[in-house]
Amino acid sequence: MDQWLEFTRGPLFAICLLIMLLGLGRHVLLQMRLLTIKGPTLRKVVWKRIAADSLSWLLPWKHLGEGTRILTIASMVFHIGAILTPLFLADHVVLWESFLGIGLPALSQAQADILTLSTIALVIVLLTYRVAVRRSRDLSRPGDYMILLLVLAPFVTGFLASHPGVNPLPWQMMMLFHVLSAEALLVAIPFTKLAHVVLFPFDRLSQVHWQLRSGAGQRVAAAMYGEEAKV
After folding, report:
1. How far apart are CA 117 and CA 211, in angstroms?
2. What is the pLDDT of residue 183?
3. Least confident piece of the model among 122-131, 164-173, 183-192, 204-213
4. Which spans in 64-170 are helix H?
5. Is the pLDDT of residue 112 over 50?
6. CB-facing half-sphere around the CA of 47: CA atoms within 13 A
7. Residue 69 to residue 215: CA distance in whole angstroms
8. Cα–Cα dist 145/136, whole Å
9. Are the beta carbons of 146 and 181 closer than 8 angstroms?
10. Which comes out higher in pLDDT, residue 13 or 221?
11. Taking Cα atoms as reference points, which of 179, 212, 168 lies closest to residue 12?
12. CA 4 to CA 202: how far, in whole Å?
C-alpha cells in the first residue's frame, strides 16, 4: 500500500496535473484564436458593460431570480469552498511547492474542516436540486450528475482520511481513494463543464461568441419548450 501511495502522490499526480494544465491551456488558446479571427467584431464590443456583467457574477445578488435563489447562493458558496480548500489545505500546499514551486499560505485544520464540510453539504444540495426540481432535472444529463459526484469524492475521502475517529477504513486505503479521486477530477476538468474554470471570462464575451444563424433562437426554443414557444 505504501508503494501505491508513493506512486499516486508522485508520478501519477504529476501526469494528471500535466493533463489538466495542457487541456485547459488548449481551451484558452482556442478561445484566443477565435477572438483573433473575430477581430473586427471586437471593435463593436462594449467592454465596460461586459466587465461589469462579469464582476457582477462574483457576488451575484442581482441575479437571484424567483425560483433560483437557493441554487445561485449554494453554487456561489460551493465554488468558494471548492477553490480554496484544494489550494490552501496544508498537505496540498506541500504538493504545489514540490511540483510547481509555488508557496501558498495554509489553512488551519478548523478552517479546512469548515470549508470541506460546507462544500460536501452544498454538493448534496446541488444534487438534490437537480433531482427534485423538474426544470433542472429536464435539462440535466448523466454527465451533470457525474461531475458533481467527481467533485464530491475527494472532499469526502479527504475529510475521512484526516479524521480517524470517523474513518471506517484504514488510513492508507482511504488516502489512496482520496488521491485517486482527486486525480480523476484533475483529468476530467478539461474535458467536461468543469473547464469553465478558465472559460468563464470568455463566456462573458457573449457579444463575440454567441452569434447564431438567423432563426436559430426559435429552433432552440421549439426544441426545449415546444413549437408554440416564441423568442
Report:
1. 41
2. 95
3. 204-213
4. 69-88, 90-99, 109-132, 134-139, 142-161
5. yes
6. 3
7. 32
8. 12
9. no
10. 13
11. 179
12. 39
Cell of 89: 489545505
Q: How far apart are CA 200 and CA 196, in angstroms?
A: 5
Give me the pLDDT at residue 199, please.
83
Closest CA to 1 of 171, 186, 184, 182: 171
* Band of pLDDT at residue 163, cut at 50, 70 and 90: very high
Q: How far apart are the first and last CA of the chain?
A: 59
CATH hierarchy code of domain 2-225: 1.20.950
Residue 220's contacts (CB-CB under 8 Å, 6 or more residues apart) are 231
CA dist., res. 39 & res. 150, Å (int):
38
**Total length of the chain:** 231
pLDDT(49) > 80: no
Specify whether the CB–CB gap between 164 and 132 falls below 8 A.
no
Is residue 197 scored above 90 in pLDDT? no
